[in-house]
């Protein structure tokens, strides 16, 4: 079996989930409210405008479209300030090693991210060259949990969905991968990522052979 791998970016390959959280928290605080860690889980994998809608909802704050654009831009300015200072040291444990091992075996690799900042992040962390295809927030019209981002990734890799493995830290992303009929490695806890095929703390716990076995097993 020839597998193909589609990686989420924030929280899977790089430690940017914490920057998103800090920037959204700063925005909410500036509007006079706060939100919890549990609520923050619901923002993972969700695109910028949908995230803002959820946050405003939690704060019971109403804004018109023009104000929302301004707030989203403000949050992104803070976020871009943070990610502009990133380095390869912020690649999460095991991610570089797994990308290298997949690349060495000639296994195709795509990015499947909701972020419009993926280009900058991949560049700052020296990961760009690993990707045969990049599908990010600039390339899709619908947000995870819609499967579009992964379906496009598989298309670009010329891979059948049943041979694709998605790596996700977000519940919305796991849902999207399931809807795309792909195998899912949940990066995080089972309780936060229902429906994944396996769960790992980070990618250091994953070998290429294990991924191939997982797909073979699932397609039986
Ligand atoms: C996802 C993150 O990867 O990208 C979300 O998990 C984020 O938290 C989304 O909102 C969009 O990112 P950006 O960089 O386009 O604001
Ligand atoms: Mg993520």
UniProtKB/TrEMBL annotation:
Give me any GO biological process, just one: carbohydrate metabolic process
Q: Which CDD domains match?
A: HAD_BPGM
Annotated Mg(2+) binding sites? 8, 10, 168-169
Q: Which residues form the active site?
A: 8, 10
State a single Pfam family of this protein: HAD_2
Cofactor(s) needed: Mg(2+)
Entry note: cofactor? Binds 2 magnesium ions per subunit.
The feature of type site (Important for catalytic activity and assists the phosphoryl transfer reaction to Asp8 by balancing charge and orienting the reacting groups) is located at 113, 144
Gene Ontology MF, one: magnesium ion binding
**Protein family according to the UniProt entry:** Belongs to the HAD-like hydrolase superfamily. CbbY/CbbZ/Gph/YieH family.
Protein name, per record: Beta-phosphoglucomutase
